[in-house]
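ARCHIVE CARD
CATEGORY: sequence design from structure
SOURCE FIELD: tokenized fold
FIELD CONTENT:
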């Protein structure tokens, strides 16, 4: 009898193993069912993307020039033709501060010279630490710029998809130390100048839109072209929490000459009355290459150029006639109040 059982045992082994496998599978299914029930009752919390801090205005620009001191004198003359500035000859020629609290920084053109002499556009935010977290979450690399005398971070620098240099700061005094005063005193409350937009050459509207619209929250303000053919040559995109804007300069040939690039890569100074500015500059023998004109956006403008062909556009805050091509979809900028220093959007 024992011998007979031994003979049958090898044939019983598959049945035994099969039963063990079935039991193991049943146990696994039970475990998975318990885990699924637990996950349904206590779902794992996903990290919500950080909210983008506000972008309030243009804080300043950096312009590449061949002669820093000469450029400082030229831009100071445009901004303060009556020479009411009391400290301009005492501070560093590297910086020029507007009555609005915005700044223009001058840097030497490197060799070889880049095609874009508008080196950087800086924007004002109300929470720099939160902005750093926002950029990190979206995998946008940035550099921290620190004050030399305190070591505090006062700006974050990064590039857009077409390598335009951008920065954000939560201070009106972007690079100012104790050696600088509060800014140019307004010479006339009715004609206080401030930077209202900056423009640069854009090759792919869709690519930069993903960056400025989808990630940074910029919104359309106006778009139009040189001709009434439906093609856009300029697209104005306002900051999400203010009225200043970036201007995409489209359809520029890849080998455009220096003057054309200077026209496109430009800054715009908002004024209540362009003709008043033109008369003030004429009185001190600063001649514009052309008289004031109404642009395709319906606003009066006056164009001048520095020694390196970078265009400085004076523009009235509001249109005087209906624009071509499209309607405005955002509020127009306002002249800064002379009672507010600096006259920029206030932090909460």
């Amino acid at each position: 009898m024992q011998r007979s059982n031994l003979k049958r045992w090898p044939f019983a082994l598959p049945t035994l193993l099969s039963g063990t496998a079935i039991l193991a599978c049943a146990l696994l299914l039970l475990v998975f069912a318990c885990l699924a029930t637990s996950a349904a009752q206590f779902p794992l919390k996903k990290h919500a993307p950080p909210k983008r801090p506000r972008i309030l205005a243009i804080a300043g620009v950096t312009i590449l020039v061949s002669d820093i001191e000469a450029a400082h004198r030229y831009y100071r003359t445009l901004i303060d033709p009556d020479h009411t500035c009391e400290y301009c000859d005492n501070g560093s020629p590297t910086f020029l501060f507007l009555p609005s609290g915005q700044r223009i920084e001058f840097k030497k053109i490197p060799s070889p010279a880049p095609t874009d002499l508008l080196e950087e556009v800086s924007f004002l935010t109300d929470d720099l630490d939160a902005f750093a977290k926002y950029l990190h979450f979206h995998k946008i690399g940035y550099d921290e710029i620190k004050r030399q005398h305190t070591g505090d971070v006062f700006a974050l620098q990064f590039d857009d998809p077409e390598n335009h240099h951008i920065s954000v700061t939560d201070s009106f005094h972007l690079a100012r130390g104790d050696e600088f005063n509060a800014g140019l005193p307004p010479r006339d409350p009715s004609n206080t100048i401030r930077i209202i937009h900056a423009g640069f050459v854009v090759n792919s509207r869709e690519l930069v839109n993903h960056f400025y619209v989808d990630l940074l929250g910029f919104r359309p303000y106006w778009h139009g072209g040189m001709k009434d053919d439906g093609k856009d040559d300029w697209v104005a995109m306002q900051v999400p929490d203010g009225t200043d804007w970036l201007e995409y300069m489209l359809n520029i040939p890849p080998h455009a000459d220096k003057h054309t690039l200077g026209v496109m890569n430009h800054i715009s100074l908002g004024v209540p009355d362009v003709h008043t500015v033109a008369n003030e500059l004429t009185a001190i023998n600063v001649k514009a290459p052309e008289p004031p004109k109404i642009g395709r956006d319906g606003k009066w403008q006056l164009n001048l150029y520095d020694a390196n062909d970078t265009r400085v556009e004076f523009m009235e805050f509001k249109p005087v006639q209906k624009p071509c091509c499209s309607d405005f979809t955002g509020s127009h900028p306002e002249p800064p109040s002379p009672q507010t220093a600096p006259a920029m959007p206030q932090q909460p």
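CARD ANNOTATION: The mean pLDDT is 83. Helices lie at 2-41, 68-79, 128-137, 205-215, 258-264, 274-283.
SHELF: design records, drawer C
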